[in-house]
């Protein structure tokens, strides 16, 4: 199949905008708990009526500060309650939100604020304020810098500043914002070059929200709950946060993932949203704990049963023997896994990269179906999703309502619909390259099956062409290798080379357990063991297993273990945990050369 469309289920009226949901909730469901905010270790309820009042108060302050309709406002912060509050308050004041990852450098902050022409910026803490102060002299249009934390807290300052502004003035301002006006400019984290600003309208995000609701009516039912820990500068977390406000799902925020298990236990969300690396960490952590506690064989048997059980669900259902085994392991293992997510999670949503078949089956078999989505910043988050009753492991599901997906002659995935962005801010050339007759050229390679399900097979720019002319997509091999608990990251190499190779890094969390089980000194670090025979043998076994999924010409023939992991701080990963391949290739060029040395 070359093209598949799903009809729209709900239209966005020309006069609608994203702030309407705040006051609709306050008027009709004022006592519903919209957010739970962590204050000194205690979760405090914030009702829909409270939230609308706070949004109004902060919006008044921005109007009083002189912000005009359409002005861009930067937002640099970790995931926290104020992020969502400011997001809606900027919209209520008629502004355009420009999110910036809180891990950004001064140079990155300068570029985004300068390119967007931001008139104001919210920063979370003093360290972010210091970064803005470094570059503020190069930003002539920037008139206000408000800090969320500290003695002059932005919310209190703006609330006081706007005391003389009436509710009617804010309602008049937000009423001037139409569906097709810009709501946010989201700068892609960029695996290469300068980030580009994706211009998303109120229509784009409202279409995404309503499409998501039709696909996930059970998990986005009013009264359910979500604990957000992904960066809200990432479109996946942001779109779901807005969807939760729209559908009256209670939202909590936490940025400190070191305490994530504790926060999940206290908050007890009904569903979880994460990128695949988080699910890999949950799986690897459970496996490591079991093996370290002498229960490795039980966990491994439970894992095999979980995968078999989930696989059987797609093939006529599990037999009586498998159902009995599954029930036994549910009590021994799977209940503990669900408890790690708070004990109430009925499902999870994964996006940003492929999860991998085995992990999908493992979590579904363990009672936590992980619904995969596919999309980009340019598609307002999900363009395709799997959903209850329509799961097909190995695919990213069907297009969301109102969206069409087409496969170009060269295999590139094209997307059309109300979720597709209007263009790149201040970058007409990039817009013309990405949008053609309303079709967005994603840069990803994929295929549609006979039922319209999309399968991602690679990234167009990441295709490796060997010296023998073989086209190799690295994603399939990398996903399979990364699924092993000992391995943190994998980057397949081999462009213009005689064969395929790989750079592999060791997972620092699993490494201590591996050393103990293999009789290695506890003090040994990764650099001490990168030539260790046992380590290399285990990785070789993982590579051999991954190679079974590809042809001989695509198989990894040699690999090299690196002494350190890839990280965002090291520059090898984006904030959304994607590999910066060009950076890795440059930094570790000598290691790549060593793979191909005679």
TrEMBL record:
Residues 24-425 form the AMP-dependent synthetase/ligase domain. SUPFAM superfamilies: Acetyl-CoA synthetase-like. The lineage of its organism: Bacteria, Bacillati, Actinomycetota, Actinomycetes, Pseudonocardiales. Keywords: Fatty acid metabolism, Ligase, Lipid metabolism. It comes from Lentzea cavernae. This is Acyl-CoA synthetase. It comes from the Bacteria. It holds the Pfam family AMP-binding_C_3. It catalyses: a long-chain fatty acid + ATP + CoA = a long-chain fatty acyl-CoA + AMP + diphosphate.
